[in-house]
Amino acid sequence: MKIACLQFAPQVGDVSNNIARAETVLSKADPEDLENLDLLVLPEMAFSGYNFKSVGHISPFLEPTGSGVSSEWPRTAARKYGCTVAVGYPERAEASGAESRYYNALIVVDGDGEELANYRKSFLYYTTKTWALEGQGFYGGKLGSFGQVAMGICMDINPYKFEAPWNAYEFAFHVLQARANLVILSTAWLTNDERTGFLSSPGAPDLGTLTYWVRRLEPLIRTESPEETIVVFANRCGTENEATYAGTSTVLGIKDGEVSLYGLLGRGVEELLVVDTDKPPFAKIIDPAEESVDGEPGAPPAPAENPEDSDNGPRRARASQAHHHYTWTTTSHPPSAIPIFVDVYTPDADADADVYVYDDNGDNDDDYEAAWHDSSSSLSLLPVDWRNMTAAAAAAAAAAAGTTGVCVVAEGGLVWEDTDRG
To answer: Per the database record, which ranges form the CN hydrolase domain (predicted)?
Structure first.
């Protein structure tokens, strides 16, 4: 299956320019990437912008069910690219003899521009609660040629109202109940990081966000199904007033208890992520602490083998990283204080590169901070725990393991950079 996520930075109420921004991203994409697409997914409330404060604020931008600009655009795009297209929009549903009802919705149309689904967000974030009603439950059912599909919008993967138990996993269990082989998630997901530091590395994914998303899919992982479930996160990037969005759009594959990465974008890039799930993934996320569905840690498993070379490689995440492959692990579901381990290798054993390990929380202490240089073909740090290492110890451990590429390990997660880092 060839899947595309259109990540861009819409602004509140600037519909025409938001559409133009999306079109610009598509125009800059490799023409070959746009051939034979099966699915194109845009973010939540893609053309209206997201951060509305009230019904009055959003009222001029509400669109009739399935017939506004956010519904016409995917029909045009679907016919142009011959694929199914999903776009998030603010819906105004007319009711006979009653006031209109407003929803945060996702419209899906097939390659002929015919509507396949109009899903309404079920779990509302604080911002959306100011103007929208809850939908009647997550989407699950047959969708065109994709077979069984589950759909959600952003907050849908969180515990209900942030009040339900973490291990209720409402959306993940819905996916299992629906027997979905494809999960579509259109999001406007915020980062937990401070804006200034976060925006300084637009090409780096927000690994805290990615880790959290994977944690919310825990039941899918623990079933260890031999059938792969593809999960699409189409997020937005940029800022709106005080809101800073996490970007990091990704396509995951969950099979046999493992999570594969088919593609991943940076936190701040406006770009089209295109992957082919019929080709090998470029990385796997491996959890060294076996956890039960309630999140209690268990014993660490053995280190995983290096991921295979793949046409879905990190060039999809960042063009300058085309020769790097990554595997990392996490050991706890909260997005803070996550110990990270990493495998990095390149197919070129003679490649020279600087490697950095440093503290990314801004306090300039000596923990994690190290830099070294060599030309080995692989970095294998499993099962080294960087949390309690001084710079000297970290450098010694990495030198003993053999290193290549650029690796940044921080208290809250892993960020990778390219070899041009100064």
So the answer is: 1-279
CATH of the domain at 82: 3.60.110.10
Helix (H) or strand (E) holding 373: strand 370-374
Question: Quick check: is 124 in a domain?
Answer: yes
pLDDT tens per residue across span 1-39: 999 999 999 999 999 999 999 999 999 999 999 999 999
Residue from 2, 5, 121, 270 carrying the catalytic annotation: 121
CA 90/CA 126 separation, integer angstroms = 15
Range(s) of the domain holding residue 376:
344-415
**pLDDT, averaged across the chain:** 76
Is there a contact between 88 and 186 (Cβ–Cβ < 8 Å)? yes
Which of 240, 261, 285 is at the close of a domain? Answer: 285
- CA-CA-CA-CA torsion sign (8, 251, 76, 74): negative
Confidence of residue 246 (pLDDT cuts 50, 70, 90): very high
Q: Among candidates 378, 314, 382, 380, which has minimal Cα distance to 347?
A: 378
Share of the chain above pLDDT 90, in %: 62
Are residue 263 and residue 184 in the same domain, yes or no? yes
Instruction: State pLDDT tens for residues 31-75.
Output: 999 999 999 999 999 999 999 999 999 999 999 999 999 999 999
User: Which long-range contacts (C-beta less than 8 Å, at least 24 apart) are formed by 223-226?
Assistant: 223/176, 223/257, 224/256, 224/257, 225/254, 225/255, 225/256, 226/255, 226/256
Boundary of a domain, candidates 269, 285, 301 = 285
| CA–CA gap between residue 46 and residue 67 (Å, rounded) | 15
Q: Can you give the pTM of this predicted structure?
A: 0.73
Query: In this structure, is residue 308 part of a structural domain?
Result: no
Cβ distance 7 to 269 under 8 Å? Answer: yes
Of 2, 5, 44, 237, the active-site residue reads 44
Q: State percent of the chain over pLDDT 70.
A: 67
**The pLDDT value given to residue 95:** 77
* Whether 5 is catalytic: no
Q: Which two tokens stand for residue 297?
A: 């840690």
Closest by alpha carbon to 83, among 141, 42, 25, 24? 42
| Residue 44 designated active-site | yes
- What φ, ψ does residue 192 adopt, rounded to 5°? -90, -5
Could you confirm whether 308 is annotated as catalytic?
no
pLDDT in tens, 263-279: 999 999 999 999 999 99
List the catalytic residue out of 5, 83, 154, 407.
154
Quick one: tokens of 391? 């710079």
